[in-house]
Structure to design on (476 residues):
DNA sequence: TTATATAATTTGTCAATACAAATTATATAT
DNA sequence: ATATATAATTTGTATTGACAAATTATATAA
């Protein structure tokens, strides 16, 4: 890990430990540079990370302060893509039922969303995920074989996310999600145990690798009483 | 505007204009530094911005590339906080009906969400927003008088966001939002013209200023057929 | 005392340079 | 021709130094 990342990590720990209290000023950059035996520019790069995570407020001419509203923003993590299995690791038991597993050619919409030629086959996977044996989400994933390969029904029953990272050695990148509400459909009643008029929280997402290739276009339906999505909106850098 | 911001702006324009095609490599940093008559570090700071906006992919040892999936990410903007009035400026006519306007003491939940003492009064504003005369959203906003002052019903009928920025001269910062689905309630039927069993897309948000003070805790309810929320999830910097 | 101007402090920006790390191109050996 | 080792290229990290911009503290004047 590079130096500025190490410094960011250390400072983050201090904030989380309460060494620097919310609203309080951090030591000035020159002092931090001295303490970490590095240059001020490196301290600034470290502060960039903490600022990006909303841990600090920067005021030119004044100082760097711990966000007055800081209170260990743990649930923010839920807005990061790590797949359902990762998200609930240690918190609940995730079980998966593969309702459909197929390799076929993409529809026009799918090839467009995935940015692939219509001649490239895709995985079409339909899964029901349960948390501690309670129906949680219903997901239809489309993944192009040009990016993801050697996927099996057995893998789909475990964690596709882990497979992509560890077995294929690919790095997950950014994701764009569209969140909406919808009426209950037949599958929601059958698999999610919804009542006829229960609302559904629907997420349509495209997830990319770090090299920019899209590896998943998925639609997920949540029971309205089971899930909410936390998002963090930052002000633009320009 | 600082130099690296100007460079970022220029490069963004080129990408948006298609001068650099998706998937294509940008000129190498040394070349850009030469062209803009600046140093490579400045070019890197400019690239930081474009990377943050998902316009480019960076590969150490290889080069900097336009995101292969780039296609003018305009709707991403909808995930930024600019208030409803700003969001639809030029696209639709926003009209506002103030259903309730009151100054009172906060509830425990409100003082906690706003990070204020329970002795500090708050505005309690309940508004119906319409787009081109069609019911769009129903919002209950709580704002502390310690941050926002001189707010009137007349202001609430126009744009509170503009008032905060221009009249109070405050800078809007980050926002945390929790998105969920809910069943229709009486007010939804009355004001949003919902049917009894229509789902509602609900957003609970706390919005901060750049100095970290929270100025709004609000609950917004959308007709399920009128709005969806686009969010962009980035991989952490560490 | 109060307002105003000045100085000091602190963060932000930028340059020039050097080396590290990863990738890509080239040369070499088999 | 193919695989391997080497060199060249390109981005990433880091230092030092300098000045700009914003805020805060101090000194001065009324």
């Amino acid at each position: 890990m590079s130096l500025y990342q190490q410094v960011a990590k250390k400072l983050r720990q201090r904030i989380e430990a309460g060494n620097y209290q919310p609203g309080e000023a951090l030591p000035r950059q020159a002092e931090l540079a001295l303490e970490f035996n590095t240059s001020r520019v490196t301290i600034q790069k470290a502060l960039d990370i903490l600022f990006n995570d909303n841990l600090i407020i920067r005021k030119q001419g004044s100082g760097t302060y711990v966000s007055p509203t800081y209170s260990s923003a743990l649930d923010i993590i839920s807005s990061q893509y790590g797949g359902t299995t990762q998200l609930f690791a240690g918190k609940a038991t995730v079980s998966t039922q593969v309702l459909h597993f197929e390799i076929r050619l993409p529809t026009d919409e799918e090839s467009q969303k995935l940015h692939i030629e219509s001649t490239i086959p895709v995985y079409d996977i339909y899964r029901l995920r349960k948390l501690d044996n309670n129906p949680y989400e219903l997901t239809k994933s489309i993944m192009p074989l040009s990016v993801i390969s050697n996927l099996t029904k057995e893998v789909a029953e475990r964690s596709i996310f882990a497979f992509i990272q560890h077995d294929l050695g690919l790095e997950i990148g950014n994701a764009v999600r569209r969140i909406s509400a919808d009426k209950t459909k037949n599958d929601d009643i059958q698999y999610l145990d919804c009542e006829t008029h229960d609302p559904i929280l629907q997420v349509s997402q495209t997830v990319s690798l770090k090299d920019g290739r899209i590896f998943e276009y998925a639609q997920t339906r949540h029971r309205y009483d089971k899930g909410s999505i936390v998002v963090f909106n930052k002000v633009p850098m320009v």
Q: What stands out?
A: Confidence is low (pLDDT under 50) at residues 74-78 of chain B. Residues 2-4, 38-42, 45, 59-63 of chain B lie near DNA strand C (CB under 10 Å from a C1'). Helices of chain B lie at 3-17, 29-35, 40-52, 83-87, 108-114, 153-157, 160-167, 186-192.
